[in-house]
Structure formats: structure tokens, C-alpha cells
């Protein structure tokens, strides 16, 4: 029995050592041994056996990295493949990427994404959830806002979904309700090109929309994609279906062209910002033009909490009778994210 117990302990110990044989060397020459979990948006997630929580290390602080495990690797030039990663023994600014027996050299700073292959479902999942509540004695005013974001990434594709709610009420004024949802699937192509398809849902009392459903199919290109920022543009076709809160207004369908851009800046300390603008000129409704604008500024707090403030604006130059051409929401909320 004692021999069996000793064998079991040795096997567990060997398994633990094997699973934590990755190592990195920082700019101050400190060395960490453990497990590389991921690299995204210039932040390396590193797990050690002597810490209760994972280390989050700015990528520019890492000068050497060593792992024999396979990762999904993305480079600044748009290449994506599966590979191990080792700092070159002679030139420490270079990493050697073993992609199926083919050795590729790259500067360390041009590696912009790492994700360990064979990890469980949660390791590939990202999530954010935040809430905002405003109570005012005057007119018994109440406002509730919520945001949720889920994302799942693989070697060649990424799936994201988001949900946003604004509910407001006060004495003597009609209640305000705004609910927006979005799902997006993106397929990565060589040299920073991509294909995308998405579905957007919007219910907005200000514009008398019971439900606007917009399906989009198109593609785009990332002009900048590195450890500091991402700037991409996209274009394609959009099919729009609208129903209204006014029962006398008939629902309508339209075909649109869409084009726009998105800018994501994340290497500014604990701050990050995301902004996007998309335009929708109609092909089937003469002279109709819609536009969506979004700006979010997020400040990271300890233990994966954050504070976020943002502005969302929707414009339609041909709204239904009695509805506003534009509607905007300004939100400040407190939340938590899973990385």
C-alpha cells in the first residue's frame, strides 16, 4: 500500500512539473516558471504554482520566453498558425516558432497573440458583465443599465456576442426602453483580411422601434494589428427588417450597403478604448441613410474588475412619423471580466 501511495505521489508530482514547465524572463532579469495561458491585447497571462491568482504581465516587459507546448500564434503581419515558441539562444530578440517541423523566426515584439492548444473550453472564452444604477429623488427618477459580452476564439475564427439594456422611468414621463443585441462571426484570412457575418437587434422607444433586425455579410481588412492597437475597416451587404410600436405603421424590409471602421487601443496602462462607426445607405429606399457610432473607455481595476463609460448614437434620416432621427445613450458602469 505504501509503495502504491508513493507511486501515486510521484506521478502527480511529475504531472504537475510537466504542466508547469514554461518559463519567461522579464526585463529586470527575474525568471518565472509555470504555465503560459494566453497573450492578447499586449497582456500575457501566466500561471505559477506559488500564486493564488494568475500574473498579468505587459508584453513589453517580457524579454525571453520558452515553451515546448503548442499555441495558436498570431503575428503582426497577419500570419496565424499552431506552433511552440522558444527564444533564440544567440539573438534574444528573436523567437523560434516550430510550426509542424518548419522553423519560423520572428521578433518577440511582433508576436501579438498566443493561446494554448488543448486547453478546456473556458480558457478560450472571454466575458464581461457590468451594471449601472441611477436613482434621483426629483420626479422619482430611476435608470438601470447593463452590458454583457461573450467571446470565443479559435485558430482561424472568432465568435462574439453582446447585449446592452437601458431602462428609465420617472413620474409624468413615458418610460424609456432601449435593448440592443449583437452576434458576430469572423473568419481570419491571410495577410490581415477577414470575412464576417453578423446579426444586430435593436428595440428603441425613442425611435418607435419595436424591433430592428439587421443581418450583415461582408469582409474587411486590418490596417494596423499589433500589441498596441487594432484598426480595421469593413464593408458588405445588410438586410434590414423593422417593426414599430405604432400598430398603424406597417413593418418594412430594405437592402443596404454598409461600410465602416473600428479602432481598438489597449496599450495605455490600465486604460483601453474602443470606438466604431458604420454607415448604411439604402439600396431599396430612396435617399435613406442610417449610421451607428460607439465609443467606450474602460479602466481596469484589481481582481478583473473595471469601470467603463461610453456613448452610443443611432441615426436615421427617415424615421417613422413622430420618431426622432437620432438617439444617444451615455453610460457609466462597474463590471467584472473573465480572461
Parts with pLDDT < 50 across at least 5 consecutive residues: 3-19
Based on CA atoms alone, the radius of gyration comes out at: 24 Å
Compressed to H and E, one letter per element, the order equals: HEEEEEEEEEEEEEEEEEEEEE
Q: What order do the strands of the largest sheet run in, or round the barrel if closed?
A: 10-11-12-13-14-15-16-17-18-19-20-21
Shape: globular
What structural category do the secondary elements indicate? mainly beta
- Give the helix level as a range of percent: under 10%
- Mean of residue pLDDT? 86
Give the distance, in angstroms, between the N- and C-terminal Cα atoms.
Answer: 42 Å
DSSP helical segment count = 1
Total strands: the figure is 21
Could you describe the largest sheet, including whether it forms a barrel? 12 strands, antiparallel, barrel
* Percentage of residues in DSSP E strands: over 45%
